[in-house]
Design brief:
single chain, alpha+beta, Phosphorylase Kinase, domain 1, Phosphatidylinositol 3-kinase Catalytic Subunit, Chain A, Domain 5, 3 domains, 6-stranded antiparallel β-sheet, 17 helices, globular, binds adenosine-5'-diphosphate, binds magnesium ion
Length: about 450
């Protein structure tokens, strides 16, 4: 792990995995603190290599010689979103602060320190030559899981900002470049098939509980992801691992294939681009219809993925997942391909504690409100016909109908189910949407009947 003691660090080299275990210098980031801007430029050799791909096809298209500037703001040191996506968020920063002395103190230092320990294909170095792609430590599940209680204890202590032993904190180094707020790390599950003499590696993100949780989040996320799958959403696989300290959640990684080949990953937040000051303009950009437009710009199967996004939106509304912010939607470029695609859904669960809030991103023209008009306008903006939207809404309602039973089956207690009830009351929004479609149709029928009778 790179410890960095240079508070004036102003330049990073960006390397990417181009497949087959090879990396290339993709470009350079220079932050000019006086001009208060960061500038990213692709390397010439990279632009001319057939394996090259843009780190962000909308905001950083692969153009030789182009310089992309990002102004330094209060919460960003002039680093383009696609690069920040490859670095740690709240949780990873907490881990790095516990592991490094002195701790990293700005975005560049965090990117450098967490380099290679996050998702996707991007790595950072301070000098041009310095990136032999970091050896990813293989974490054998059977061995590690004997001490998972220990790891969980450490996760909880790190999460609370309490001191932890360095050796225990080191377990989290591998996931220190990961995004999100909740405690998590990576594990690789290695299975041997003796008969076939084959080895299979499944790669997971492990998510741990937090002391402040009102409900067991691991069980809740697992139960919700299962319902999302039943509702026809394309979701990552999840499973629960029981430990003496309670359940932990394993989420199958979408950014690495079983053979180790990596997907380049960019969040919807980065693809949306820089945010204007004006609240109305922000609400329009951070919206389901706009993510739909982005799908149209970057994906080959845009029609199918736009429908998928609409389905996810209705599901999020139904289960009261109001934490559907633009970092909880991502795009990935699979190894060997040029185009991006919407990743499977992740981090989908009722947002306990702020029930009844609007969605984090806009549904209709007036923000995240979930009323039938807003949902209908979203369907229209995404080019989804009434019949199809109705089918999707029905799928979502059918999959969430017996939610109590399903959550109890997954191990949530009746008391926890009661807490989640307030979030699940949001199913009523989807029911109201369905009812509104029916009523419009009835109105139309009445009108046509009226016309034929008067004839
Ligand atoms: N299955 C996955 N495969 C690869 N990356 C993932 C996966 N799930 C989440 N991520 C990445 O990790 C980040 C954090 O995960 P998330 O489940 O959203 O955590 P949190 O609950 O802390 O927000 C996401 O924003 C995404 O970039
Ligand atoms: Mg998240």
């Amino acid at each position: 792990m790179t410890s960095n003691n240079n508070p004036l660090l102003s330049k990073l080299y960006i390397h990417v995995d181009v497949g087959g275990g090879e990396t290339m210098v993709a470009g350079q980031l220079i932050v000019d603190r006086v001009r208060r801007t960061g500038a990213f430029k692709y390397a010439r050799g990279y632009c001319r290599d057939e394996r090259a791909y843009p780190l962000d096809p909308i905001n950083l298209p692969l153009v030789e010689g182009a310089i992309y500037e990002t102004p330094i703001t209060r919460d960003n040191l002039g680093v383009a979103g696609a690069l920040l996506d490859a670095g740690p968020d709240d949780w990873g920063r907490r881990v790095l602060m516990a592991l490094l002395d002195p701790p990293p103190s700005n975005d560049l230092e965090f990117l450098l320190s967490g380099s290679g320990n996050g998702t996707g294909t991007i790595f950072f170095t301070e000098s041009r030559g310095g990136c032999a792609m970091q050896e990813v430590p293989v974490k054998m599940l059977p061995k590690e899981f004997q001490s998972l209680e220990d790891i969980m204890e450490t996760a909880i202590r790190l999460d609370e900002g309490l001191p932890v032993e360095k050796e225990k904190a080191m377990f989290f180094e591998y996931g220190s470049g990961l995004g999100g707020v909740r405690p998590k790390t990576f594990v690789d599950e290695v299975q041997y098939n003796k008969e076939l003499g084959e080895k299979r590696v499944d790669r997971w993100i492990v998510k741990f509980p937090r002391k402040t949780d009102l409900v067991d989040h691991c069980l809740l996320e697992h139960a919700t992801m299962k319902m999302a799958k039943e509702a026809g959403c394309d979701v990552v696989d999840t499973k629960i691992m029981e430990t003496a300290r309670g359940p932990v959640l394993l989420v199958k990684r979408f950014d690495v294939e079983t053979d180790g080949e990596r997907h380049h990953v960019v969040s919807a937040k980065s693809l949306i681009g820089p945010m204007p000051e004006n609240a109305g303009a922000r609400a329009e950009l951070e919206s389901y219809p706009n993510i739909g437009r982005i799908i149209g710009q970057v994906s080959e199967s845009s029609e199918q993925e736009t429908r998928e996004l609409f389905r996810r939106m209705l599901f999020n509304i139904a289960v009261g997942n109001v934490d559907d912010h633009p970092k909880n939607h991502s795009f990935s470029k699979p190894p060997g391909k040029k185009q991006m695609q919407l990743t499977p859904a992740y981090d989908v669960l009722p947002t306990v504690g702020i029930e009844g809030s609007p969605q984090a991103i806009s549904v209709g023209p007036f923000g995240g409100h979930q009323n039938p008009k807003a949902i209908a306008s979203c369907a229209e903006a995404m080019g989804i016909g009434e019949e199809e939207a109705e089918e999707i809404a029905q799928d979502v309602l059918a999959a969430t109908k017996d939610w109590e039973e399903k959550m109890l089956d997954e191990g949530l207690t009746p008391k926890e189910v009661n807490i989640v009830r307030k979030s699940m009351a949001s199913r009523a929004h989807v029911q109201a949407y369905l009812a509104s479609m029916g009523s419009e149709e009835r109105e139309r029928e009445k009108r046509t009947k009226g016309i034929s009778m008067s004839r």
